[in-house]
Amino acid sequence: MTAHDGSGLDARRIRFDHGDRVIIDGMHITAPGGSVTALLGPNGSGKSTLLRLIAGTLRGEVESLELDGVSLTEMQRRARAQRVALVEQEWSAAEGMTGRDIVGLGLLPHRGWLSFEGGEADADATDAAMSRAGAREFADRDAATLSGGERQRVNLARALAQRPALLLCDEPTNHLDIRAQLDALVLLRTLARDGMTVLAALHDLNHAAAFADHVVVVADGHVQAAGSPQDVLTRELIARVWHVEAEVLSRPDSDRPLIVFDAAMTPALGR
């Protein structure tokens, strides 16, 4: 599949080895522009690695990597950072930094080489990003004292301050309570409706079914399926990729699937 109308992300022939193990073996990934694409797969299937390769924070083999028809691999690092933001699960807060300081780092790609303080406009942009991510209350907190969920919101706010065309999120609901998870997913969908391309690695299949426009399932180094949640998240695929039995129902208020897992988590048939 290719991104609709040439917009969005189109990453071809991505490969990454770790030692003698092939983690990603020639994957072709697309994320349509103005949509939320959920990246799904079992633990260890390379979702985090794939996001880092696309962001350019990890080196691997990539035949082509285009966003809205423009090559990301041919861009200088600063120009790429103006287009692509990555929200990772890991947290490495600098000593003595506040939540506002962390979010302000997202503005660095847009500043001049010799500019370190951005003034009122940067302060407004930082505040707006924190408000949108639900992180305003952590602005003056020492970043080292933030909980996992609070850090997740601050990290998302930093990415929003970066004003990316492509937002990559690695488990954006990790560490969040149920309400905060739903808030984060609604925010991703709103960002996509505003024109951003969003690619988010998720572990909850029902979150993907309810909020994603497009899903990509990866396992064993390859893309196993890609398309709409309705077409991809079938009982057969779930059994084959995750090795669990599930019943796939229709939501009463939409055509999106609702996945109900066997309470006993019995192995899939045929195993």
Q: Tally the beta strands.
A: 12
Oligomer: single chain
Q: What is the count of helical runs?
A: 9
CA-atom Rg in angstroms? 19 Å
Main sheet attributes: strand count, strand direction, barrel closure: 6 strands, mixed
The side-by-side strand order for the widest beta sheet comes to 6-7-8-3-9-10
Structural class assignment:
alpha/beta
**Which ranges are low-confidence, i.e. pLDDT below 50, for 5 or more consecutive residues?**
none
**Percent of residues in beta strands?**
25-35%
First CA to last CA: what distance?
31 Å
The gross shape turns out to be: globular
What is the H/E string?
EEEHEEHEHHHEHEHEEHHEE
**Mean pLDDT across all residues, rounded?**
90
Helix share bin: 25-40%
Task: Give an account of the 3D structure.
The protein is of the alpha/beta class and 271 residues long. Helix content is 31%, strand content 27%. β7, α6 and β8 (197-201) form a beta-alpha-beta unit. It is globular. The model has no long low-confidence stretch (mean pLDDT 90).
Please sum up the structure shown:
With 271 residues, the chain is an alpha/beta fold. The protein contains nine helices and twelve strands.
